[in-house]
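All the exercises in this workshop are built on plain-text protein records. Sequence and backbone structure share a record, each on its own labelled line. The structure tokens are whole numbers drawn from a learned vocabulary of backbone shapes. The record below serves as our worked example for the rest of this section.
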Amino acid sequence: VPIEDNETRLHYVANVEGVSFALLVQELDPNLIHSVVWNLLRDMEKPFEYQGLTLDVDATAGIAFHPAHGNSSENLLRNAHIALEAAGSTNEKFAIYSPEIDPYNQRRISLLGELRNAIEQDGLLLYFQPQISLDTLQVSGAEVLIRWIHPEYGFIPPDEFIPLAERTGVIQPLTYWICRKAFEFKHSLSEQGFDISLSINISARNLQDPHFKDQVCQIAKTPT
């Protein structure tokens, strides 16, 4: 549907799926994109009346530029949707597409397959960051941190491979691997007379699994 029609410009809005809409804006200065999107989202989030009720709308946007992010409507919509998902996962109001947030670019596809192998072959590392008791000034626990040293890419930061694991379902075996190795470490310390607590970061995706609690309890009982 054209939302503006004159001799110099055509802007279109289309319902692409459910409550998702695509907005085509032509001849827009990229330097103005932030102010344009903020104004658009602000207008969309104004309360409105429907059948006697006042309704609020929460709007999020994903942005892709032509031709930088695609030469076809399919690629532009795909990349705008990826940006939209990235904005939603970080609680931002909008995001602009970039290869770094694309879970399907070549590097990420490669890393995904190799991450699965790294989990199966113990190719990941755990670091334990000490937690000090303010009362005794002694080590009372540790936070478990995962690290990945890739044979080709070197150090892969967790903020790159953890979101990738969350989007693709690999987060479950990854979290179980972390728990297993962490409990093995704790068991080893206990045998040496050291009893400390461990803090393990858990993804919200893990908590959506109804069997997650039972699996972790089982790993804690028999970590090796």
Notes: The domain at 106-221 is CATH 3.20.20.450 (TIM Barrel). The chain has a mean pLDDT of 87.
